[in-house]
Amino acid sequence: MIGAIAVLVTVAGVLAVVRLRRRYMVVTVRGESMLPTYRPGERLVLRRTPPRSLRTGQVVVLTEPGHTQPDAPMSGPHLIIKRVAALPGDPIPRDTVPALRTAPGTRVPAGHLIVLGDNADHSHDSRHSGYLTTDRLLGVVLRKVG
């Protein structure tokens, strides 16, 4: 009887860990693009979030343009941390995003985001590369760890 309870507790624990890992991740900041908000080496808790629940101003983690591996290692070099500047349907902020000054239309198209680093001098973001697609979204930063 005690052995069966121990097995059930172990299985429940494993299932809880699997569920948490599917919903939350920890990423490590690399580079200075989000200074002063986040510093290199800081660890951040991230909640996997569908694009429809994003809000302007949230800090998100995405796969870097040119890389198509959304399941890349979290501390790997192919992730970027940026702040959402505009969502699908929002006006295109042409004054702050030079790469989109000549973009067609007046609104951010469906399936696209505009993201900016807090430290403009050290950030490669929508100012340079234009839109990022929402399929690159891994999640929203909740807080720093520790």
Widest sheet: strand order? 1-2-7-3-4-5-6
Specify the structural class.
Answer: alpha+beta
Radius of gyration: 18 Å
Order of helices and strands: HEEEEEHEE
How many distinct helices? 2
Helix content: 10-25%
Largest sheet: 7 strands, antiparallel
Would you tell me the overall average pLDDT? 85
Distance between the termini: 40 Å
| Anisotropy-based shape | globular
Q: Strand tally, please?
A: 7
* Low-pLDDT residue spans: 12-18, 72-77
Note the beta-strand portion: 25-35%
Helix-strand layout with pairing:
Elements: H1 2-23, E1 24-28, E2 43-47, E3 59-63, E4 79-86, E5 112-116, H2 126-129, E6 132-133, E7 137-144
Antiparallel strand pairs: 1-2, 2-7, 3-4, 3-7, 4-5, 5-6
Describe the protein's architecture and organization.
The protein has 146 residues and is of the alpha+beta class. The protein has two helices and seven strands. The chain has helices at residues 2-23, 126-129; strands at residues 24-28, 43-47, 59-63, 79-86, 112-116, 132-133, 137-144. It has a seven-stranded antiparallel sheet with strand order 1-2-7-3-4-5-6. 26% of the residues are buried. The model is unreliable at 12-18 and 72-77 (pLDDT under 50).
Précis, in short:
The chain is an alpha+beta fold and 146 residues long. Helix content is 18%, strand content 26%. The N and C termini lie far apart (40 Å).
Feature tags:
globular; 146 residues; alpha+beta
